[in-house]
Amino acid sequence: METWETVSMTRKEVRRPGLVQAALAGKITTAEGARAVGVSLRQFRRLKARYRQEGAPGLVHRARGQRQEALPVTASPTSCEHSGANQTPSRPVEHQRQNVTTL
């Protein structure tokens, strides 16, 4: 008896199983598959290897469902040596313009 497993995939991932199967069957090249999926040759080879070992569930992004850690703040905006570079001028722009007379 065959068992079925439900796999949640993003729109981007849905195309992967068919393209990987076609590459494994020799219907398309690895380069064509990689281009169609939008990954490098190396990553497409990894997808093929994972598909051989795990089937379609192996093609789902590994970080799905995991919490992403926030990056630590290393410097405050005022402590940076370039902190004044992008600040707005203290005087309004109108006061900085020079009067130019045109004929």
Q: What does this protein look like?
A:
The structure is a single chain. The chain is built from 5 helices and no strands. With 103 residues, the chain is mainly alpha-helical. The protein has a domain at 11-59. α2 crosses α4 (41-54) and α3 crosses α4 (41-54). It is extended. It starts with 10 loop residues before the first helix and ends in a 7-residue tail after the last helix. The mean pLDDT is 77.
Strand content: under 5%
The computed structural class is: mainly alpha
Per DSSP, the total helix count is: 5
Intertermini distance: 92 Å
Concise synopsis of the structure shown:
The longest helix is centred in the middle third of the chain and has 14 residues, at 41-54. The protein has a domain at 11-59. It has helices at 11-14, 16-24, 30-37, 41-54, 93-96.
Helix and strand arrangement:
Blueprint: H1 11-14, H2 16-24, H3 30-37, H4 41-54, H5 93-96
Pick out its properties:
0% strand; 5 helices; mainly alpha; extended; 103 residues
